[in-house]
Amino acid sequence: MSSKPISYPLMEKIVALSRRRGFVFQSSEIYDGINAVYDYGPMGVELKRNVKNLWWQDMITSRENVLGMDTAIMMHPKVWEASGHVNNFHDPMIECKKCKRRYRIDHLPEDSKNCPECGGKLAESKQFNLMFKTKLGSTDESALDVYLRPETAQGIFVNFNNIVSSNRVKLPFGIGQLGKAFRNEITTGNFIFRTREFEQMEMEFFIRPGENAQWLEYWLQERLNWYKSLGINPEKLRLRPHTKDELAHYSIACYDIEYEFPYGFSELEGIADRGTFDLTQHIEYSKKKLQYVDQENRGAKIIPAIIETSAGVDRTVLTIMTDAYWEDEENDRIVMRFSPKVAPFKVAIFPLFKKEGMPEVARKLYNDLRKHVAAIYDDGGSIGKRYRRQDEIGTPFCLTVDHESLEDKCVTLRDRDTLKQERVPIDKVVSLIIEKVNL
Ligand code: GAP
């Protein structure tokens, strides 16, 4: 996938809507921003939190044989020697002699001699390590060079013995975690698709060696189904096997789950057969026995193989936003058609007027609803404007309290996608909204 600057109309619209409605902002914008680093606003953080909660629910809470962890971002530097990241986590980079812009070679047309931006001569290519280095310790002499983790997976591998000895786990079992990862990407772009600080949702599934193919197939289907369960158009999702020369240094086989963005199919998640590479490397470098005593195999001591599912939170958010964006020309509105599960807010409550008892009824309903679901109260501007605001942030349901509500104890429920309106008894609203959100 080539990381071109944003010039796709749909992407530009999503970037503009993100800013306008408080999904995503450029980091440190008042200082002209910092490249490929982003902040999530009130709408974005709710959407992102829903993605992470749904992943955790699907991968950890609902599975008897997968446990969760939360490991540190900074780890002993030897971890990254053992993992192969110090020697292998490089991208081939080329610099323009004139404007000093840097490019990943595989992002340039083959045999490029000149800079695509200024036409200057390109220098010889170099290997560029993607890990960020920093110092840990208060004095220069004692400070240790450490890296910001480029993947969360290593925190799981180095804790293998801790998990096995503190929990009653039996093969096959998984350990999952989600958290920040950092990569000093040479080329960035396409908004939050490739950034330098991002979040991963990773699960390492430990198996008996030899069962790799069957578990790889199992996780491919499980993970593909998860994206479909978020309401993403299944026709825009595909599985793509890696060719031999694409495989990362640790993997024997790998598939990407890809989504068709305006700039082409691109990776959302990698599902890899890492074999016994990671545990074997950590055994060698740490001199500790990372092994499993297989009671089902006469107490044999084995090094489990690993199937990994590694997804990006930010890429999932971008996929959901790209997939949900809809210009409803007939009704002159922009709608984020989020599935209610992922929508930042599930319901908005409007008093038709700020008088005659309507705000009191609306506020009570709002307070009742937000004990259960993320709700918004809006009493500003015409009802039409309020609907448009909610459409743009993808709120699936709106409730209006009007004059009649005071008499018939009903409110108007409006559906974001169909625009259908129905009267619903106030005392049934909370259970109805909970049911619709969890469908
Ligand atoms: N532990 C394996 C691993 O890290 P990866 O394919 O390098 O594999 C996994 O990364 C996922 O992390 C990707 O599919 C993507 O969703 C996300 N990711 C990786 N680099 C990223 C970046 N620079 N910006 C945003 N997300 C990124």
Compact summary:
With 439 residues, the protein is of the alpha+beta class.
List strands and helices in order, with pairings.
Elements: H1 9-21, E1 24-26, E2 38-40, H2 42-61, E3 66-68, H3 77-82, H4 85-88, E4 90-95, E5 102-104, E6 126-129, E7 133-136, E8 144-147, H5 153-157, H6 160-166, E9 173-182, E10 197-207, H7 212-229, E11 237-241, E12 253-261, E13 264-275, H8 277-286, E14 292-294, E15 300-302, E16 305-312, H9 313-324, E17 325-328, E18 333-336, E19 347-351, H10 358-369, E20 375-377, H11 383-393, E21 397-401, H12 403-408, E22 410-415, E23 421-425, H13 426-437
Parallel strand pairs: 3-9, 19-20, 19-21
Antiparallel strand pairs: 1-2, 4-5, 4-6, 7-8, 9-10, 10-16, 11-12, 12-13, 13-16, 14-15, 17-18, 21-22, 22-23
Bound molecules: glycyl-adenosine-5'-phosphate.
The site of glycyl-adenosine-5'-phosphate has 19 residues, from strand 10, strand 13, strand 16 and helix 9.
